[in-house]
Predict the structure.
Amino acid sequence: MTMEATRYEDGSISYPGHPRGPGGSEPVETIDLSEYSAEVITWTTSMATPPGVREPNTLVIVEFDVEGESVRAIGQATTDEIETGDEVEPVYVDELREPGAGIREPESQDWDGYRFEPV
Amino acid sequence: MERVAIIGASMTQFGQREGEWVMDLLAEAGIDCLEDSGVDAADVEHLYVSNMASGEFEGQTGVPNALAHDLDAMPAYTQRVDQTSSSGGAGIFAAWQSVASGASDMTLLVGGEKMTHKTTGEATDVIASLTHPVEYKTGVTLPSFAGLTARHYLERFDAPRDSLAKVAVKNHKNGVDNPHAQFRKEIDEETALESPIVADPLRLYDFCPITDGSAALMLCPEDVAQEYTDNYVVISGIDGATDTHVVHEREDPTVMGGVVESGKGAYEMSGYGPDDIDVAELHDMFTILEFLQMEGLGFAEQGEAWKLVEEGYTERDTGELPINTSGGLKSKGHPLGASGVAQGVEIYEQLVGEAGPRQVDADVGLCCNVGGFGNCVITTIMEAAQ
């Protein structure tokens, strides 16, 4: 399992990847963000969660620095003891929410991924 | 291009409409709008229905055709407009296009949603299904996006938490005078600030409720409008725009590009600017959104909207720019497909002088309807015909 971001012709990186990047630039390679640490940009703890989601659910938006190029990601945090500016690293989890408990077709996407843990 | 007028408006009671389903609500608003405008159903050429998720909420699809039958509006052309929470605004845009293009001389727009039979978690999940798979699997909800954005805004611009509570207090106060609002109850700042946390730092009173309801508008060319009434409203500017689907990919989390771009387009078409707007309905699904739209539409500099709210600039009876005189989504309620239409109903009533105790002195009004978390936005500017 990787946390796959996409680099485009123009050098920008996005997570997730898209068929076209900024200015219509094409993808040129993938980058595994799980090998990098990131900084917490903002966070929230959600007390009212949908079916199949842990409650409470602390979420963060983080920013990675990949060789000078920034890329952001959203993810669950491993703890509610988190602050803006914290350094975090991705930790693999085989099921982030229960497939099929919510409205989305379970086979339509994957459900494993990464949580962010303070370093 | 035809100048497009609005000659009638209606909205149902918003709230928990037990035992009534989406078709009941749409028909109620549709019939009321026909009566309000004095238009025969047989004269409706296009019928648009703004609705996000009747299939997901109650297993009812095909609502536009069903409504045409219920209103006896056949053989009107029908179309469903789904743009998540901005389905109503997108419906105004579609209805405007149908008239402006000359394709229809009488277009009825009805927006509606039935939601309250679902639990909060289920309803929240239907709405959150608009997210990208990498977002959805984290369990993120639209309220979570609001919490993430509010924290960033408050920290970055050194805005006090109380300023968000002031938005809730203002909109609840306005809603008291709206007979169709879901909540007609004033709250104080203390109540808002001590209510249960929903998505830290946001609390219960920072969020709109889950709502059943419907609203409708009747649109036609201006020369046709004059056959019905001399007290009508003209849509002087309208535009829609999108921002990233994946919310965290936005360069600046406090800027909603769809608001900025749709606002620019509506201002340009109308010839008006932010200083010309006398009254506005903004999409306060969450209190923080009122700040972001005020800034995106040029009513305030970035990071400064909270100061205007604190100064009373947006108060209905004493402010320079009354915002959400209807009570907003916060107090009036947010039946997804109806909300953007109901914003238009409020601005229409303000401009034709039919807003009752909510009436403000206004010649030009604006509504901004936000879908997703700023993913798609419609801004509409209207002016009184007289």
Observations:
- The first helix of chain B runs from residue 22 to 37.
- Chain B touches chain A at residues 56, 120-122, 124-126, 128-129, 132-141, 143-144, 147-149, 151-152, 155, 196-202, 246-249, 253 (CB under 8 Å).
- DSSP finds 15 helices and eleven strands in chain B.
